[in-house]
Amino acid sequence: MRILIVLLFYSLIVGCQGQTQNLTLADAPKNFRKNDNADYFTGTWKLTAKNYADGNEKKVFPLHECMKHYTLLFEKERQDLFLTKNFATGKNCTVKSSTSRNLITLNGSSFSYFEEDLKKNEQFKIISKNRFAILYTDIIYGKVTEIEDVYEKQ
Predict the structure, then answer these.
(1) Which residues pair with 2 in a beta bridge?
(2) Which has fewest Cβ within 10 Å: 72, 76, 88, 145?
(3) How far from the centroid of its chain's Cα atoms is residue 21's Cα?
(4) Residue 30 is assigned to a structural domain of this protein
(5) Closest to 99 measured CA to CA, from 89, 90, 111, 86
(6) Which residues contact 98 (CB under 8 A, 6 or more apart)?
(7) pLDDT tens digits, residue range 70-85?
(8) Which top-level group of life is the source organism from (predicted)?
(9) What's the structural domain count of the chain?
(10) Residue 78 within any structural domain of the chain
């Protein structure tokens, strides 16, 4: 009898631990969302600058002509936010291409999505009502460098 009570108590404790819920931004009521940036991002954003840190100095990386045609399209559908990246390549930047329409999840100052089978997590900072930057590291002139791609709302 004692073994049965111990087993019952143990199964009760183990069973209760699995009942925590992971809520996403879309699950929370609108007035309780900490960072509801979905409305902010909705629309078309054009790449306008690429800044990087060289030691303590902030520098501007010159955009190639085709990079000036890069855009991000954020579309809101019900509680979901989707991202499509648009690119231009080729001679005179006439070859246009875009990614598939990806569902994104906003979480604080980052958003994540799947591109093909890879999960991407992009850090961002809001600069103003019509400008934001995506932050990442890359290699520029042979050094690992902090970069911010600045986008402006169209």
Answers:
(1) none
(2) 76
(3) 23
(4) yes
(5) 86
(6) 84, 85, 86, 87
(7) 999 999 998 899 999 9
(8) Bacteria
(9) 1
(10) yes
